[in-house]
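Hi support team,

I submitted a single chain yesterday and got back a structure, but I'm not sure I'm reading the token output correctly. Could someone confirm the output below corresponds to the sequence I sent? I've pasted both exactly as they appear in my results page.

Thanks,
R.
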Amino acid sequence: MTLVQKEIEGKTLAAALRALGRRDPDLARAIKEVGPPPPRSRSAGFASLLDIILAQQVSTHSYRAIAQRLEATIGAATPASILDLEETHFRAIGFSRQKVKYARGLAEAAHGGSLDLDAIVAMPDDEAVAELVKLKGIGRWTAEIYLMFCLGRPDIMPAGDLALREAAGLVYRKRKRPDEAALRRMGETWRPWRSIAARVLWHYYAVKAKEAKTGAAAKAQGKARRKSAPRRRGKTKNANKGTA
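Hi R., thanks for writing in. Yes, this is the structure output for that exact sequence:
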């Protein structure tokens, strides 16, 4: 069964942002600068969990290309459709050898019943993470992202996420981005809304990165225009002097 979880939005999101802002002035400043985070929810189930695994340790561009080729090949991903793929199909789509093993392992577990994604919906956060990480290819980050965006859990902190740590470094004006353990410690302040705090940090990072890119492009264009502009001839030494 595929479930669609309702993400924390509307009045609940507004209340969560107010609560976070009251207890964390730096986060309050970030929220004021970039506004509330956009929705990022997705359906719960096999296809979304596989999609999160595909996104591990690759660039966004590479991940999107692989995901698009997979959809073009099999349509909606199911355990059966993944198990039907040959090694050559996986490689043509762009799967690494490691990702082939992870995809097949996930499909076999879901197909055989050793992984019950519907049962995970009813589990507390820690139990759900522990159940998911039993599978090869699913680490803590993958499990936490699944709980956040597919199950709509409000108090998850995927501190292993590099962009999240970069964002925390920016918001809290640190010389170096915090490591995973440090970000988890920081996250204790944000309970029971750590998922919302994480969404704020991601949103802040995305907005600031876009601003920096736009500023760099504008600067480059201005420099190019100055280079291509015709030079004005200076006035001659006696240009303003009258004749005798």
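A quick pointer for reading it: The chain is about 60% helix and 0% strand. Let us know if anything else looks off.

Best,
Support desk
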